[in-house]
Amino acid sequence: MNADIGEVWNDMNDRLTNFVIGKVNDSELTKDIVQDVFLKVFSKNDTLKQKDKLISWIYQITRNEIINHFRNVDFYNPSIVIEEEEFNENKLTSELAECVRPVINSLPQKYKEALILSDIENIPQKEIAERLNISYSGLKSRVQRGRAMLKSTCEQCCDISTDVYGDILDYNPKKIYEK
């Protein structure tokens, strides 16, 4: 498990640093908080019950460390609010969506349009069907086929971990070795 944490930490260090600096606006303090997060993650990794929730767990520890910092310095700024939603899996889904936008754009027009409206712009499918002047079931088919095409293409270049609901837990580019 420690090797997994080391790999995840290397992958996440920059993301956590950027997140923390956005909240505390102090580069030295950011380094301290990120280091404290790493120490807690490494020392308490055996307490994690669901190993597939490692990234969410790290984000939770990061949020708690930021809150603890502000508690310890007797400083309260109501404009600094750390929402639970900032760390949920939808953030990874949105992040990955931006990475795969060129892949989406390479899909046939009818699938591309259905996916962008449904999955990126989050427009209800009934509304999209009306806009495109097609049946609701026809739109659902387009979205499902577009997702299947997109998934197939993405699986060729990335390892994507999802939960039982299909929400993205983590993704990593596949390593391609040249001969």
From TrEMBL:
A Pfam family assignment: Sigma70_r4_2
In what residue span(s) does the RNA polymerase sigma factor 70 region 4 type domain sit?
99-150
Q: Which CDD domains match?
A: Sigma70_r4
Looking at the record, the residues that make up the RNA polymerase sigma-70 region domain are: 15-72
Secretion signal span: none
Extract the SUPFAM superfamilies matched here: Sigma2 domain of RNA polymerase sigma factors, Sigma3 and sigma4 domains of RNA polymerase sigma factors
One GO molecular-function annotation for this sequence? Answer: DNA binding
Keyword Manganese among record annotations: no
User: Which Gene3D superfamilies does the record associate with it?
Assistant: 1.10.1740.10, Winged helix-like DNA-binding domain superfamily/Winged helix DNA-binding domain (1.10.10.10)
What UniProt keywords apply to this chain's record, in alphabetical order?
A: Sigma factor, Transcription, Transcription regulation
What are the GO BP annotations of this UniProt entry? DNA-templated transcription initiation
Lyase among keywords: no
UniProt lists the family membership as follows:
Belongs to the sigma-70 factor family. ECF subfamily.
Q: What is this protein called?
A: RNA polymerase sigma factor SigZ
